[in-house]
Design a protein that fits this description.
By secondary structure, the chain is an alpha/beta fold. The chain has two domains: 436 residues, Rossmann fold (3-Layer(aba) Sandwich), CATH 3.40.50.12780; 101 residues, GMP Synthetase, Chain A, domain 3, CATH 3.30.300. It contains 18 helices and 27 strands. Strands 2-1-11-10-12-13-14-15-16 form a nine-stranded mixed beta sheet, with helices on both faces. The chain is globular, with a radius of gyration of 24 Å. The model has no long low-confidence stretch (mean pLDDT 95). Bound molecules: adenosine monophosphate.
């Protein structure tokens, strides 16, 4: 099959006229000021993401419009208007004030997707504090690393997740308050001594609140992201990022007033905040939030039941849907869908083409990362799609393939470092307490993304791979160091080296190699025990899927484990330069 191009649709035949109908024109003349003017700004001056997403709509007919439709794991349904979102988030902002939380303090949330999570996020932003959402599948180690590094003062969580991480909580001296949400009283005996009751606090709080007069560069959201070395780093964003969320929600997701939008990402990852919170609501769309995880049947039935029009998901999910087969789609009416987007990993050309067959439209890939804050490269509804390509840069931002050493841009067709010309609205403002690492990402006038790619002669970008050892498993970046650190805490493990092993569904799975301490012998039982150990500490998504025993791990003469060599050996590839390899 020829994957080379899926011609843009006839605009007059589309269910909605695309927001971005003239890509070339927009790129030529665009100024960010025009987007700033489409937003309101705080009545007394300043800019606040929560105000732009929620409260500004109260002056319009959207006041009584449904902002959030929630479907719980057990089929419960709740709906909230923009006005109710404003009131509930005001309540939570008042709760934080009552707890002594000040502008700039860090408030973390570790919970499943409940409506209350969204109230808490907006309430925190209204208070002027910084929200740090945590992936609800995390185990104690990643939660501890993030709370400790950020110096979080408040943790909002649920009884089951609190129980999962209970041992690390006393080890966090800066953590002053644990607020427990007990959705519809699901849990009996939910509170531990010293815990605060979310529902009680909310019931007692006023639904009026004067939003903190945050400025564009004040911090808003932080997400931890993994690198090759060391613990994950806290990428901090500011309220100005809302310009980028709003604009790309318009252009790449094509969000419009009448849309029912569904983003399948968890708010613990950046897609779940920029596009699961900010972009849809700043654009005034109705958003479906589904508490549960992946299930082909359930997902199609949600699209059918709520008549989802715009859908933002990820390649691993799409590959799983492909595996579930076309018969699974046909059991439902998914004809409401008018625009489908994907992010997080390379989207295979077959998946894009599969979309044209089963959903009658191409799946639109786009590219960005935690540090960029919002989509920077995308396929737009009114543009030809080249299956396998991430698309073209958004208006107002320069993206290029560069030579890192010189800062020169490379000619079309040449692989190089994917780089972005600073600044842009969603650009991260720093890594928390790690200025040196932040500065190291900017070279010769470019922000260096850590991805390799090339651009074709028409300005479409094509992903090649990462420039580092970071593993991308089902769209989640995993730092090998985090997994290695967890494994070597097991009494049997002397050394651990972790790589990403190619996988047809998840793109990569985490694979670990361990050598054992004297007195321990490799066995299937020990392998299983190590898997369980890592899963309990980390999260199923982060823990190794495979563990191999080796007598010793290949290391450089300075003692660094050579993951590159482990990977080459695993995949039967050439070992490359081994001149720094330590002799046994
Ligand atoms: P994160 O910061 O966790 O959102 O991960 C960002 C990384 O995911 C990028 O630097 C890429 O390596 C990868 N990624 C995101 N979107 C795409 C895409 N459309 N195609 C290929 N890789 C992607």
């Amino acid at each position: 099959m020829d994957y080379s191009v899926i011609a843009k649709p006839d605009i007059s035949q589309l269910k909605a006229h695309p927001n971005l109908d003239d890509y070339a024109g927009a790129r030529a003349s665009f100024q960010w000021d025009s987007i700033r003017k489409e937003l309101d700004g705080l009545p007394g001056g300043g800019l606040n993401l929560a105000y732009e997403a929620v409260d500004r709509h109260l002056k319009t007919a959207r006041r009584t419009k449904t902002a959030l439709i929630w479907e719980g794991k057990n089929g419960e349904e709740e709906r909230y208007t923009f006005e109710q979102m404003a009131q509930q988030s005001n309540r939570f902002a008042n709760v934080l004030t009552g707890l002594g939380i000040q502008k700039g303090d860090r408030v973390f949330i570790f919970a499943e997707r409940f409506p209350e999570l969204y109230f808490a996020v907006f309430g925190t932003l209204k208070r002027g504090a910084v929200i740090g959402p945590l992936f609800s599948a995390f185990g104690p180690d990643p939660v501890k690393d993030r709370l400790e590094d950020s110096g979080a003062k408040v943790l909002i969580t649920t009884p089951d997740l609190r129980e999962r991480v209970k041992d690390i909580l006393p080890q966090l001296p800066e953590l002053k308050h644990i607020v427990i949400m007990n959705k519809n009283g699901r849990f009996k005996d939910a509170l531990q001594p010293g815990d605060l009751n979310f529902e009680d606090l909310m019931a007692k709080a006023s639904d009026q609140f004067q939003i903190e007069a945050t400025q564009e560069t004040d911090y808003s959201i932080m997400h931890y992201t993994s690198g090759t070395t060391g613990k994950p780093k806290g990428a901090v964003h500011c309220h100005r990022a809302v310009l980028g969320h709003y604009a790309t929600g318009k252009w790449a997701l094509d969000l419009q007033d009448q849309d029912i939008y569904w983003c399948t990402a968890d708010p613990g990852w950046v897609t779940g905040t920029s596009y699961g919170i900010s972009a849809p609501w700043t654009n005034g769309a109705t958003q479906l939030i589904y508490e549960g995880g992946f299930s082909a049947n359930r997902w199609y039935s949600l699209i059918d039941k709520y008549k989802v029009t715009v859908w933002y998901t990820a390649p691993t999910a799409i590959r799983l849907l492909m595996k579930a087969g076309e018969a699974a789609v046909k059991r439902h009416d998914v004809s409401s869908l008018r625009h489908i987007c994907s992010v997080g990993e390379p989207l295979n050309p077959e998946a894009v083409v599969w979309g044209t067959r089963v959903f009658d439209q191409a799946i639109h890939d786009n590219w960005w990362q935690t540090e960029t804050g919002h989509i920077l490269v995308a396929n737009y509804p009114a543009m030809d799609v080249r299956p396998g390509s991430m698309g073209r840069p958004i208006p107002g931002v320069e993206v290029a393939i560069v030579n890192v050493e010189t800062g020169e841009t490379l000619p079309p067709g040449t692989d190089g470092d994917l780089a972005v010309k600073p600044p842009w609205p969603g650009m991260f403002q720093g890594y928390w307490r790690n200025e040196a690492m932040y500065n190291s990402k900017f070279k010769n006038g470019w922000y260096i993304t850590g991805d390799r790619a090339h651009m074709d002669a028409d300005g479409y970008f094509w992903f090649v791979g990462r420039t580092d050892d970071v593993i991308n498993t089902a769209g989640h970046l995993v730092g090998p160091f985090e997994v290695e650190s967890a494994l070597i805490e097991h009494p049997a493990v002397a050394e651990a080296g972790v790589i990403g092993k190619p996988d047809p569904i998840a793109m990569e799975v985490v694979k670990a190699f361990v050598s054992l301490k004297d007195g321990y012998e490799p066995s299937e039982q020990l392998r299983q025990e190590l898997m369980r150990f890592a899963r309990k500490k980390l999260a199923a998504a982060v823990a190794p899927r495979e563990i191999d025993f080796l007598p010793s791990l290949p290391k450089t003469r300075s003692g660094k484990i050579m993951r590159r060599l482990l990977k080459a050996r695993e995949l039967g590839l050439p070992e490359g330069d081994t001149s720094t390899l330590e002799e046994d």
